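pipeline/complex-builder :: batch 7 item 3
reading input block
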Amino acid sequence: MSLDYETLKLVWWLFIGLLLIGFAIMDGFDMGVGTLLPFVGRTDEERRVLLNAIGPTWEGNQVWFVTAGGALFAAWPLVYATAFSGLYFALLLVLFALFLRPVGFDYRSKLPDPRWRSAWDWGLFIGGAVPAVLFGVAFGNLLQGVPFHFDADLRSYYTGSFWGLLNPFALLAGIVSLSMLVMHGAVYLQMRTEAAIAERCKKAIAIFAGIFLISFAAAGLWTAFGIDGYSITSIGALDADPNPLRKTVEQSTGAWLHNYALFAWLWLIPTLVFVMTLLVVLLSRIGRPGIAFIGSSVAVACVILTAGFSMYPFLLPSSSVPSNSLTIWDSSSSFTTLKIMFWATLFFLPIVIAYTSWVYRVLRGKITVQEIRDNQHTAY
Amino acid sequence: MISEEVVDLSRLQFAITALYHFLFVPLTLGLSFILAIMESVYVMTGKQIYKDMTRFWGKLFGINFALGVTTGLTLEFQFGTNWAYYSHYVGDVFGVPLAIEGLAAFFLESTLIGLFFFGWDRISRVQHLAVTWLLALGVNLSALMILIANGWMQNPVGAEFNFETMRMEVSSFADVVFNPAGQVKFVHTVAGGYCTGAMFVLSISAYYLLKRRDQAFAVRSFTVAAGFGLAAALSVIVLGDESGYTDGKVQKLKVAAIEAEWETEEPPAAFTVIGFPDQEKMETRYALRIPWVLGLIAPRSVDEPIIGLKDFLVQNEQRIRNGMIAYALLQKLRNGEDDAETRARFKAYQKNLGYGLLLKKYTPNVIDATEEQITMAARDTIPNVAPLFWTFRVMVACGFIMLFVFAASFYVCSTGTVMKHRWLLRLALYCLPLPWIASEMGWIVAEYGRQPWSIAEILPTFMSASSRSAGELYLSLAGFIGFYTLLLVIELFLMLKYARLGPSSLHSGRYYHEKIGGAA
């Protein structure tokens, strides 16, 4: 397989998917812990245990989000431009919620006033829960398509409203992602804490794993029988200069299952979501959260892959003018840019993973209430 | 076309979010190196006080870093949310340094910052020192990638227009990375950051010395800051001059606007120290001018002229006419009349395409522009002179005052007479805001001076904005201003509290407030 333009377009679909999965696994448990913070932590000291379980590492995890944004800009400029300008207030809402995290972690325990601390705890809850829901809502809308079109100069116009994004299917997808990440976060917490807090995590894992599997199954059935998928009916050469105005697309119910019909082995992926999640519940119950965390990470990855393979090769379908939909073939950067970014990613990402692993190894171990007391002026 | 109101609001939102971000970034840049220097002394000498210094200034670093990250998040996504056409038109080039910044730099600094705060007892001294240096390296590498991206907006080299995809595409990535505009901007900006870090430590240390608290701690901090600051202030001025020289070659119009050079002068040009530029009449009233100086700064030559704004106006009008031809050819190519001759003609004219696009503000078809519209578009190519003229001079004045403060501080440190010069300590304290004023002014000079372009001579700003409505922009703008201001107030409150508390906030039992049993 040589690195021609067509191959690179496909490779970049895998790379962006990889970055999204990295983000969902790494920042996902931080968002889950943020959501659990006011509930699993009953006292100030308990909450500080939760915060310090993720405090020293959450910042690096968030960079998966920033890097995915940057990579989207470089690899698929049209997707970056159209999606973010179209979903304007949804993205701003995510950002505003995320703003609360850097300051929340660093400022919360710098003053002793309980009202101050409680306010930041709720801020961190918002910083975890709101993006967790909205990322799911975004996926829900991608699957249905969003109303946009281009003019001849390739300027994009979004013709929907913010409230239109909060439709029933998208909200269901929001529940999928929230319950998935809360489960994932609870598994991480069980691994890093002990006694009462770890016990509460076990309960949370069982509850949210249940909600997650039910909503995931419901969303799957809805995708298969309820909403219109998209398929390309004609397109020019796949290695041509990208121009999203030169293809035809049709919408039909069940079209999102075409890839699964073509390649039956793909069914393995959604199946793994169920198997892994049930394993997570079991492993958490018998007190093996370390292995359970691997299981929940696989489940998270497989949820994203399930949606990704169902939509392939679509990235951002247009519900108002389907032929203007963005696909991996007609919204990428130039051959040169994809090549530069390919080598840059291949070079830097392993280094990132290496030093991140080292940092996690250095900071491993359980966080205890006693440890918080001993370091009350330096801990988060 | 999008309304002018939407464009103005989008610009205002970008300016405000970028200026807020730039309140925190320079301090992060400078303080990270100061922390690395302090910790290096600790590791080499083994003296506890240097570890305390690293930890205390590190606490303040953390308070500042949090808001740097918060405000930085917006900027990674704002090109998409508010500048969608820009993102499409230049994402192929501009997105690359941004993505590499995330991969190569932001990951490094964000992953290691946790270890900087929480790794003291978990890794060896040398390992921790390495973490601190890598943190500083990551922070500065971030600045490098961002300024390569920004430098490309000022001087778009290494890219070609592709009519099939209707956008700019990378032709030579090496040219983009080694763009002289990006390189000088990088060194000038980070040196400005080092000044900020140094002035921050110098001022707060001067405050402790004036209060006669924690003197051993404060004198050492003051000394590190004075040395680092002196080197930084000298670099920022020398490298600022270097950027004047580079701008003099690649951004001649901007230099002419900053200097309010309306006419082309016989070389070497005089430098207008002060005066009142009048945009309408194209003249500067009450100008105080020093002969020769501008010629020496910008072209560094006594016989190369600085072209005046009036002559640029004439040149640009011609480029707009050529741009109309380029635009007509582009329409032909996009409509499928893709023959060799049209391609060749387009190639010959395409460097003027951006000038043609300036007409879109007045007539969407471009090719049917009237003489009056061409004149108006040409007039648009001259940025607003007065704000540039003044912000530039305020920035330079701040730079020279800081140079004096650092030099005097360095002198009293090396003669061991810090405590005998209370006037200098007071001056150092009052100079605290200067680096921030200089940084913000510098941003305005660089970016306001780029107008009417978002990508110099390629894409006009008014075309770059997303197709959103004014009402939506008012709402998001109000959201940003309100939220950022709230966070800034909280940050300043904590910063003041911890700066006042000083090293006592480490709770080591060795410092002022704990010894006298005061509040801690």
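note: Chain A has a mean pLDDT of 95.
queue -> next item
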